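May I ask you to comment on the folded chain given beneath this request?
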Amino acid sequence: MSVHTLSIDGRPVAVEAGASLLAACRGAGIALPTLCHLDGLTPVGACRLCLVEVEGQARPLAACVSAAAEGQVVRTDTAQLRQFRRMAVELFFAEGNHLCAVCVANGACELQDLAVAVGMDHSRFPARWPRRAVDASHPLFTLDHNRCILCSRCLRACDELEGAHVWDIAERGEHCRLVAGLDQPWGEVAACTSCGQCVDACPTGALFRRQESAGDHQPRRDRAAVLQQARQQKLWRNQGEVPP
């Protein structure tokens, strides 16, 4: 096995060749903040919260989509990075309608947890309060566009784990939004298997089970990684079973 040795925050770290900088940091016990990343799904570098500084690079790199390389000198906790992360979290809150007290994910929301982690007690940016719809057409689940941060975790979970590809991102810029099927009500999309994997992958309260009320939502953040590993090892094959 080929191994790369690099320096992260002044300490030497050895990682398998091909590993990401995020994996290298986690292996060193450094917890980088993430929102779009979920173990078991293809990384996309959308949220930019896992930015790190690499010596010799003109700008910070998203650790989840940047490969670790021999001899790199990486910094994960500088004043500039802390400023970037707080600004990103503030913008997430300003861009959507995140009223935590009445959200089903209150207390179990990754965006809420990150706000605490970066020390955000207010947003310096004016709230946009966009007019967004709630899709309650599915018999089991609800999509609240007001909470959606366009991390695409639901899209990748549906595509890569279930193989249904119900979800996609439509339009551009401030008009970007999550759409089901061919921009249909979720409940009318025949491809949906009602597996709930998109709901389990959602980091906020944008996707939730219909019986959940404020504070009830408990996403299963480990489900994607468990399913990916099981399929690689061909578990449940010919057993007529599915993972819990």
